[in-house]
Each structure stands twice: as structure tokens, then as C-alpha cells.
Amino acid sequence: MTTAGGVVGPRLIERCPVGCEGGLVETAMVLPEGALRRCLLCGQLVSQITAVAFANSMKEFDQPRGTLPTEHTQRRHDARAAKLFGTVAALVGPDPGRALRLLDVGCSSGALLRSALHHGFDAEGVEPASQAAGFAQGSGLKVFQGYLQEARYPDSSFDAVTLMEVIEHLPDPRALLKEVWRILRPNGVLVVGTGNGVSWTVRLVGARWGYFQVAGHGGHISFYNPTSVGLLAGRCGFHVERSTTRRVSFAEPYETGRITYRVLKVAAEILALPARMFGQGHDMLVLLRKVAA
Questions:
Q1: Residue 252: what pLDDT?
Q2: Rg (Cα) of the chain, in Å, rounded?
Q3: Does domain 4-290 sit in CATH 3.40.50.150?
Q4: Residue extents of the structural domains in the chain
């Protein structure tokens, strides 16, 4: 097949990443790589991107500052991090005499690690992109440069693990989640942040949703929903402790004029509360609990 940029080759994903055996069918949402395909059993959406095009798209993350917040987004990042780590600490529960240990997988240049340390966690990270990992290490953070399985942490090393904007990059996430299960302590918590492929945003804008666009979000190839995350969790030794969604969008900033975009943004803010209430937001946060073997 041919993808954006004229790259020819086999599709990177041929089966449901969640592990379903029902097959994939094409949807009406057509991207430069071809139509998104949907699992008949769990609704997971997957890209038709080739391995070569996927690898090229991931190069955007190998730069020193990685995903550090900008001056404009720092306050929002701090507020979300404070809420996240308060929730994680409450779920894990206190352990007198020591700080809770947390591992951020795909930590980039360390923005979330800094927040975790600020909120009292003994935090470290794993990051495959060498320049981003080097930046984090150079700023004093404890970061392993490579993939999680290469780090070879001992069993039951961590109280909590975060996977923020990671699993949508993985052709087969099950190996990673099983490794996370191994390194978590009994009843440990795994936090997964990703997009929601059945949100009101997807129903409203379809293939135009920016999250689907590899050109704007390198490596986004697999799109979850509450059902598919729950199935993946169960198959990897976790149960869903809590699942929330937030935000709705009618358009990307580049698609409209300034005034039209502002009007659409106000409309999206009006829908934000019901979207959160009914689990229809496009930002999904799932907290999983390790189930004892």
C-alpha cells in the first residue's frame, strides 16, 4: 500500500492491538495513510500506516526539549499534574516511612517527573528517544534511556506507573503492559492517558480530528475507547479502577478563521461538562489496578 509521502510497504498493524480475533474492517474515516480500520469486537481504531512511515513520524520526539510544556501551557500542566498525583497517592495509599515509588514510561524530557517529585513521589523515568532522555538526565532526573523491557527492573519495584500518551504509539501494547504488571507492587496502580476513539469529537469531525493526524502527532496509530482499554487491561492482569474523559472539539485552529474558531471553542466548552458526565470526551484517563496472580 501507499501512505502519506509516497511510502510503499505492508501495514504496520494487521490485527487488533487489544488481542481480539474478530478481524478489522475499514471505516469511512479516511486519512492520508488510508481509511482507519475498526475491530469488530472492541471498536479499537487502527491506522494503515507502514512501518517505514511510522518510524519516520516518530523522529519528531528525538529532540532535547521533548514534550516540555511551553510558557503558555505550564499552568494547565501543573494543575492537571497536581490532580493526577493526588488521585494516584490516594489510590495507592500511604506507606509510612518511605515515599511512594513511581515510574513514568515514555517520560520524554521529564516534565511529568518533575511534577511527581514536587508532589512527594520517589520518581524516575524511561525514555527511548536519546536526546530527550539526555536532557532529562542532564537536568538531574533519574531516567533510563531505552525501552522498559531493557531496563530490567526487579519484580514489584514500583507503587505506580504512568503511561501518558504512549499506548497510541504501540502496534502491540500487551507486552508493555505485562512488563508493567511485573514491576508493580501488589495492588499497584497504572495510569493510562490517551485519546478516546468513540468521543463526541470523533462523531462530530471524524477523520479531521487532529489526534488522528500523523503529520501533527507523530506515531499516533492506535485509538482506544473505554471498552477496548478495559479488555486490554483484563488480558494483561489489571482491572479498571476508574475511567474519565474530558474535552470536546469542533475544529482544529488551522481549519477556520480566528472568529469562527472562537465561536466553536465556546460551543465546545458548553459541551465539556455533559461530555465528562457521559464519558464522551476525547481525552481519556484510565486508572488500572494490578490484580494478584
A1: 84
A2: 19
A3: yes
A4: 4-290
State which amino acid sits at residue 246: R
Query: What are the residue ranges of helices labelled H in the chain?
Result: 51-57, 74-92, 111-118, 130-138, 148-151, 174-183, 200-205, 226-235, 258-277
Q: Over the range 241-269, which residues count as b (16 or more CB within 10 Å of their CB) and which as e?
A: bebebbbbbbbbeeeeeeeebeebbeebe
Q: Which of 190, 181, 186, 183 is nearest to 157 (CA)?
A: 183
Region of 291 on the Ramachandran plot (φ > 0 left; ψ -120 to 50 alpha; else beta): beta
Per-residue pLDDT band for 8 (boundaries 50, 70, 90) equals low
Percent of the chain past pLDDT 90, that is, above it, reads: 83
- Select from 152, 110, 115 the least CA-distant residue to 127: 110
Residue 157 in this model has a pLDDT that exceeds 70: yes
Residue 255 in this model has a pLDDT that exceeds 90: no
Phi then psi dihedrals of residue 167, to 5 deg: -70, -20
Model-level pTM?
Answer: 0.93
CB 145 within 8 A of CB 162: no
Residues in the chain: 293
pLDDT over threshold 50, residue 178: yes
Nearest to 151 by CA among 111, 185, 103, 189: 103
Secondary structure of residue 121 in the 3-state scheme: coil
Tell me what the mean pLDDT of segment 250-279 comes to: 92
Sheet holding 34-39, edge to edge: 24-31, 34-39, 45-46, 222-223
Q: What are phi and psi of 144, to 5 degrees?
A: -90, 125
Task: Look at residues 56, 48, 10 and name the one whose alpha carbon lies nearest to residue 29.
Answer: 48
